[in-house]
Design a protein that fits this description.
This protein is an all-beta fold. It has a domain of 65 residues. It has no helices and four strands. A two-stranded antiparallel sheet has the order 1-4. Strands 2-3 form a two-stranded antiparallel ribbon. It is globular, with a radius of gyration of 13 Å. It starts with 24 loop residues before the first strand and ends in a 21-residue tail after the last strand.
Length: 94
């Protein structure tokens, strides 16, 4: 089976989140405000959760920031520093 960044399962049948986009979302976030980053990749309100994960194995990642500014939130859902982009999307190919 060919690798495809948009596949929802890998070769070992472990569920994988859907790649929402192959780059980060630049978003202005407010200090101290609670946010919920979409981990399933199904939200229509990317990069934030809209509860589309309800029928999946995934849950949103709650977070806050200490400073009001533009942040880059992961769009590929493969980051090791959730919810922030760590450039893992550059390794996905496609």
């Amino acid at each position: 089976m060919a690798d495809d960044a948009n596949d929802n399962e890998d070769a070992s049948d472990n569920p994988q989140p859907k790649v929402a986009q192959t780059g980060p979302y630049a978003v202005e976030l407010e200090a101290g405000k609670p946010y919920f980053w979409c981990f399933c990749g199904q939200s229509a309100n990317q990069p934030f959760c809209d509860t589309a994960h309800v029928e999946s194995d995934f849950a949103p990642t709650p977070f806050t920031v200490d400073e009001t500014k533009t942040y880059y939130l992961c769009g590929c859902k493969r980051t090791g520093t959730a919810p922030f982009c760590d450039t893992t999307h550059e390794t996905l190919g496609g």
